[in-house]
Every structure is written in structure tokens, then in C-alpha cells.
Prior knowledge:
Layout: E1 2-6, H1 15-29, E2 33-41, E3 65-70, H2 74-87, E4 91-96, H3 102-113, E5 119-124, H4 136-144, E6 149-152, H5 155-161, E7 169-171, H6 186-193, E8 200-205, H7 214-226, E9 233-238, H8 246-254, E10 261-264, H9 270-279, E11 282-285, H10 294-301, E12 306-309, H11 314-317, E13 324-327, H12 331-341, H13 346-357, H14 363-377
Helix pairs in contact: 1-14, 2-3, 3-4, 6-9, 7-12
Amino acid sequence: MKITILGPAHPYRGGLASIMQIMARTFMARGHKVGLLTFTLQYPSLLFPGKSQTLDTPAPSDLNIVCAVNTVNPFNWIAVGRRIRRERPDFVLLKYWTPFMAPCFGTIARWAHKNGHTKILCQIDNVEPHEHHIVDKPFNRYFLKSVDGFVYMSEQVHGELKAYTSAPALFSPHPLFENFGQRVEREEACRQLGLDAEMQYALFFGLIRDYKGLDILLEAWAKLKAEGKTRNRRLIVAGEFYTAREPYVQYIAQHGLGDEVILHDHFIPDEEVKYYFSLADFVIQPYKTATQSGVTQIAYQFCTPMIVTRVGGLPEIVPDGKVGYVAAPTAEGVAEAVERIYEGDTLARFRENCVEERKRFSWEEMCTRITELYDMVK
């Protein structure tokens, strides 16, 4: 088949770009012709909370990536849609994660449809965003009505999707992030990050947004410290702030956590991710809301146990008591889970169970489901 993948890709950074590029390679390995269309402008600087949207590394030589899409220029949307209409791919695969993209993607999809051949498929991360705006529902409606079929990664997303469209939708869980490499020796990981190998480490990883519950985690850690349960243990917070940094820093100072919370508050390059997950005893995702999370799939890649909260699709991906614990989304719930995960041989048992559990998350399975979806709608 001839396939066009539209969404984040090099030079744009982050997990979404990695996902689209891995899927392109997987389809190419099956003998399909694949082109990637990415952005000339993804977010206007005024709307982007981080420091940089792009990488300065060379583009991957094995992929055909074209920067073509300006998300705030309607004339560009029409031009890109007409380009796809002329090129006549069998399907366009879109990645959808925020209503901000809806006007752009919905217009491109409508113009591409005009050739009577191309189908529009969507791998959908979120329907309702974690941070709500008045335009979310009309924007969602505009885009979702333009799509022929969806692949979703959690039942929460599926339920939200059905409120907008009756288009076919298939489930496939989020695959592993194999692009981050393999686990390294713990001592080597500590050396690379300049950390004391004699300490035990819990890890909070990823972009820091309010819904991800870092405030809950800090409150839980303060509670454990007050009870004398953090001796020889440290909490690593690794990721760039996409929200105000000061309230978190103030909480750390006010509760005497400065020696126990290690802030690596910057974007973590792909080549360093393995060090964090190789040295961590476990990963904590104290989210207040969630659909699914790429962080869980990175943890599976490195067989790192997890603590997640009982929100959204997280309990679907992390079986409670098998590869980690599912906690109440409160400081008390998270603190209790931290205590339990350090008991006896729990960490070793969870690491062993990750080896088997991770087998259900594969890029081959994801691409098979997308192909099945195409067969349903063509």
C-alpha cells in the first residue's frame, strides 16, 4: 500500500515523534511505501510552554520526512489536503492528541477525501484533553467527523469517542518504546547521571503538567519523610516543566525535601532515557487524570516496576500486584504504595513479571490493527 503518516516527526522532539517514526519503519518493513508529513510550525511560540519544540540532530536517513504543515494557516491546510488528494495514498494515518490540531487536521482530511480513494485513519491518544477549553467539543466534533476509522489505546478514550462518532474503532495498547535502547548496569547508569549508587531511587519521568500529580507525589514523599521512611532513598523528577515551576520548588523547600528530591527539570534526550529507567527501583505516575501514558511503556521496555494511580486507562496497562501497584490518586494512597513496593522481594518479583507482561505491547500488533481497520473502511 501507499501510506501517508501525518503528525510529529523529526525535527520535532518527544514521544509522539518517536511513535510516528517507529510506525513508519514498521509499515516499511512490511513492504509498504510510506511518507511522513510533519510540521513547518507545530505550536506558535506563545502557546508552547516548553523551551524548544525541535531537535538539532540530523534527520533519520531511512525515512522520507517532509515538513509541510502549518497548524495556524488555513490556506496551508487546504494546500496540504490538495497535495494528498493528488498523491492518492491508500490511507492517511493521523496522530491526534489535542483539540488544538482539530481545525488543521479536519480540513486536511476533508480535502484529501475528495479524490474518492484515500481513507483517513487516526491513532487517537485523547478525545477530551486533560486541560479543558471552551473550544474543545466543537473542535473535536469537526475533526472526528472527518475520520473513517480509529485505533484507540484505552477504554476511556473509546467511551469518549463514541459520543462524537460511530466510525469503526479498534483497540490496540500502546507499544513499547524500543528506540530508547536496552537496560544498562545500575552502576553505569548512576555514573552517567552523577548519582550515588548506594542510594535507592524512585522516578517521576516526563513533561511536568498539573494533571500529572507531581504535587500529590511531593506531598506523599513529605509524609514518608516525616515518618522516617525515606532514609537512603531519593526521588528523581526528570522532565521539563510545562506548568509553573515555582509552586513545586517552594513546596520542596518548605517541607525540607531539598536533599531528597533530585530535580532534572529539563527535556531528557533519547540517549539518556535508559539511564533513568535502569537506575530507578520503580517509576511513579501519580496522575490526577489519564487516558494512557507512554511512560508506562518505557518502564515496560526496561522492566522497571511501576506505581500508577487509579485513573483513566492506567490500571488497564499496569495489573495491580503483578508489575506494580495501582494506588488511590491521593498523597496517602501513593505513600502507602511506596511503602509496600519496598517490602520483601516485591521489586524483584515485579521486574520478573514485566518480562512476560510486556509481550502484549508490540508495534507489529499496532500496525496489524491499523491494517485491519483499513480493510474495514476501504
